[in-house]
Amino acid sequence: VSGMASNHSTSLQDDHLPHYLQDEDPFASKLSREADLVAGFYLTVIGVLSTFGNGYVLLMSLKRKKKLRPAEIMTVNLAVCDLGISVAGKPFSIISFFSHRWVFGWLGCRWYGWAGFFFGCGSLITMTAVSLDRYLKICHLSYGTWLKRHHAFICLAIIWAYAMFWATVPFAGLGNYAPEPFGTSCTLDWWLAQASVAGQAFILNILFFCLLLPTAVIVFSYVKIIAKVKSSAKEVAHYDTRIQNNHVLEIKLTKVAMLICAGFLIAWIPYAVVSVWSAFGQPNSVPIQVSVVPTLLAKSAAMYNPIIYQVIDCKFSCCRSLQKKSSLKESRLYTISGNREPTAMNETHLEV
């Protein structure tokens, strides 16, 4: 009986050990070789598209760097974060999926986990700053007017410092980076919450400051913006063309920001839910085959943003070309009628 009791207590202790301490080889793939090949091919496609897409955004932004508005500077920073994830992280996981195991050891695992968390946190905090900028520009014009380029650069410094702090905290002994349950990728050590109160405190702080708080600010900002836009649409229609065009540009930037935030959250929330369940749910209750799907979805987030930029820019360019055509038609009508006053008004249209 005592032997059975000791075996039972030992099994309970093993259940509460992180998975990478239960396995003899935590870096061996727990997926089939075919599944690893599919995942490796999927990440290769995403990595190539993300690298070229974000690289193109940065190149185009570099050509007009002196004309970038504060909100556009933030979207450039977002492209830098997405490119960082693609260049500093994806090659490690792609090689490991094709190799059917993580081949870079604990040092490479911690680097990969740090890079993913650093650039991911930087992306989310950048989107939080963009949402606040949009909120001030649209809902509080008296505050929005003083947001200049140098304020944007100060904000960037704060964003990078914030991301660096939280990504480096695990190296101070308060947390860790560890292999995923399926073995061929690494992440924050969510499983520390199963082992100690200190581990739970670490995970809860990460969740609050790097996910819940930024997400709450984003949701609050865009809910307020939507309400403001609906209430002010009729007012803007009575303003002159210059104010209307400026309003259209602000709405365009807001649409870009909203779509980017939505894409990011849709990609990352399933992964966050699975990670939280791994941290605070029953040990080993998430099947390995299930845990890999949110991970792969989260890794696709860096690919969406360049597509969103292009779609919105194309729609905006079409709208501007239609506006120019209508302005030209108006100018011809005014010229034929010989009415000077409307012609002067149309000159204002053309100058805009």
Descriptive account of the structure:
The protein is built from 13 helices and two strands, in the order ααααααααββααααα. By secondary structure, the protein is mainly α. It has a single domain (18-301), classed as Rhopdopsin 7-helix transmembrane proteins, CATH 1.20.1070. The chain is globular. The protein starts with a helix and ends with a helix.
Summarize the structure.
This protein has 352 residues and is mainly α. The protein has helices at 2-16, 19-22, 33-63, 70-88, 90-99, 105-139, 141-144, 149-168, 197-236, 241-280, 288-299, 301-337, 340-351; strands at residues 177-179, 186-188.
The CATH topology name reads: Rhopdopsin 7-helix transmembrane proteins
Structural class by helix and strand composition: mainly alpha
Total domain units: 1
Major pleated sheet = 2 strands, antiparallel
Question: Topology as H/E string?
Answer: HHHHHHHHEEHHHHH
What is the CATH homology-level superfamily?
Rhodopsin 7-helix transmembrane proteins
What proportion of the residues form beta strands (DSSP E)? Answer: under 5%
Shape: globular
Share of helix, binned? over 70%
By CATH reckoning, the class would read Mainly Alpha
Number of helices: 13
Work out the radius of gyration: 25 Å
| Strand runs, count | 2
What spatial order of strands do you see in the largest sheet?
A: 1-2
**End-to-end distance:** 88 Å
Mean pLDDT: 80
Assembly level: single chain
Tell me which CATH architecture applies here. Up-down Bundle
